[in-house]
Amino acid sequence: MIVGIDLGTTNSLVAVWDKGTSVLVTNALGQLLTPSVVGLDDQGRILVGQAARERLSTHPGLTTALFKRHMGSARTVQLGATPFRPEELSAMLLRSLKEDVERAHGKPVTDVVISVPAYFSDAQRKATRIAGELAGMTVTRLINEPTAAALAYGLPQRGGESSFLVFDLGGGTFDVSILELFDGVMEVRSSAGDNYLGGEDFDQLLVQRFLQTQAETPGFPATHAISEALQREAERVRIALGQAASCEFVLRLDGQQWQYSFTQQDLAQLFEPLLERLRNPVERALRDARIRIDELDQILMVGGATRMPLVRKLAASLFGRFPSVHLNPDETVAHGAAIQAALNARDAALEEVVLTDVCPYTLGIETSQRFGQRLEAGHYLPIIERNSTVPVSRVETVCTVDESQERVQVRIFQGESRLVRDNIALGALEIPVPPNTGGSVDLDVRFTYDNNGILECQVSIPLTGEQFELVIENNPGVLSPEEIATCLQNLAALKVHPREQQVNTLLVARLERLYQESLGEHRQQIDHWANLFQQALASQDERVIRQARKQLSERLDQFEHQGGF
Ligand code: AMP
Fold this sequence. Notes:
CATH architecture of the largest domain: 2-Layer Sandwich
Bound molecules: adenosine monophosphate
CATH class of the largest domain: Alpha Beta
CATH topology of the largest domain: Nucleotidyltransferase, domain 5
Number of helices: 14
Number of domains: 3
Distance between the termini: 46 Å
Number of strands: 27
């Protein structure tokens, strides 16, 4: 099977390459978008997607979301008594998507292409690969999300010549890439972005403003207890204000209700600082690609948050024209990942397309600089400059500073700052140098950055012919092979929530959430429905269960979206 996965911060999707085209695959609930939420059910089995999302507020100690933001770090999340790393949580999600494909196509999935934000660091990319491995797949390639989007848009026009800017604002990240398609070669010219800017940040602003409006209200609950409900309500209000002129932000809890009416104008004011932050990466990407806005043939909007009219308006004013939106912004990246997987597999329909990408940030080492007699450490020597086309291999020669020096520490950094303390440390390599040579010793430092965004560092000493390779040490964000083996064992020991029960679990979780959020008469009604559904489940008669599920789902939709029974 040729499979591509868009492993998103908020939602994930899987597409397969089938008979010359990419096709999205539905999950156990029949949906294309699987929320990137995982948790444990009441029996300690892994629960993924919409049902887990419903349990975020009712079972916060057993459920988690937004773990993509912590990929590449050693930060763990406790689910019940067990701590999980972001790779393990991602692996649970990936495994579920893999099973969706296996169910739909009846064939095992062994290889996969996974998309990552162009701005993901080395550690974040490695963590993504490891997550794929933990899910039982070989990650044949990581593809940058905007590159995937451009592939999805660009292929139909193969043979032509065009330049794109991909403006990708998802739930948690913002990426801008500039690509050129020429004679079947798609080249990423530059990419820039912000790893901490997405739809959820807009929601967070809305939550803060709502809390400000309630600051004086007596009896308002502690925020940590309601953060999930607030975030969900903020997202609902933000999306609704894409169309409606005003919308009530409502928090219901324990028999009480708090609310505040937001208008589109409030939103425009509130979001101004975040919208402003979208400008910078666009300008940098244009500068780095040495392209003017009027030279761009297309502006592609990707990522769910680009549906916000305020974002589209900003893009239109930035670019002086309306961007292309003819592909579904949620689905474009998954299609592109499947196309990349097909390119890897050399599918006949795609032979002519070659893809080149860039390294999104500068990579270099620490050096010392001499100021008169004084030697000052901590300076940055770039080796691979940002937006170099990959794969790329560059070498710089440095030398020892002291004749009696016996060792050199090569410290590797990523970033754009002059001093290494302002850049991100990736690792270090300790190298013995031949002593007493009567002068300084040269060292050739070679950096190789491959198509997957993985960095290798080699240091050689021409004087002796010795060579050293970097094993990135002291990077707690990257799991060692032993740790991967342990994670695999731990994950294998966990049972997965049965697939066929997912639709019922989703309804039970939804009823539980609404019960917690409601009050008085509404709460009694939900309790009644929950009991009805439990009785249907107890009958073990699939027909009865299906009918009850259908009826109750409709009533809950009415209850939630129209505010009544
Ligand atoms: P993605 O990471 O691409 O799945 O995008 C998820 C983000 O898109 C979330 O923050 C959603 O709130 C946001 N989103 C999805 N649909 C809409 C919409 N119609 N209007 C505004 N934001 C949306």
